[in-house]
Design goal:
It is a single chain. This protein has 124 residues and is mostly helical. It has one domain. It is built from four helices and two strands. It has a two-stranded antiparallel sheet with strand order 1-2.
């Protein structure tokens, strides 16, 4: 790896980027379901710190992860409010399924070294 003038690591054109860190972020998001979101917060911090340091398809994963975090926060907050009228448990389950599907799709696309589909989507 070469050091660029602004001291960030730059990936050479013929070198494959290490996909371990984005996979760890996806795993932290999934673990957030059982940790009450604590690991997801750690994951989104990692995504914010490391975005912009690789090829376009690689950086799109960090963008996708950041967007997934904020949307999941919204969906889980709405589910928490809806528990007052007894449908929040169902919407919470839907939010968990949505999160799992987005993370699995992201990991699959990452392993193919391609950008995730539908980065801007509120759905899957």
């Amino acid at each position: 790896m070469n050091e660029s003038p602004d001291n960030r690591n730059v990936i050479e054109p013929n070198q494959k980027p290490d996909i371990t860190l984005p996979i760890v972020v996806y795993a932290l998001f999934l673990a957030g379901v059982v940790s009450g979101g604590l690991t997801a917060v750690i994951g989104v911090v990692i995504a914010y710190v490391y975005r912009g340091q690789g090829p376009d398809w690689y950086d799109e994963h960090y963008r996708y992860q950041i967007r997934t975090f904020w949307l999941s926060l919204l969906y889980f907050a709405v589910s928490g409010i809806l528990t007052l009228v007894m449908i929040g448990f169902m919407t919470w389950l839907l939010a968990v399924v949505w999160l799992v599907i987005r993370c699995v799709k992201g990991i699959k696309r990452l392993q193919e070294q391609r950008a995730p589909d539908n980065v801007e989507s509120w759905l899957i």
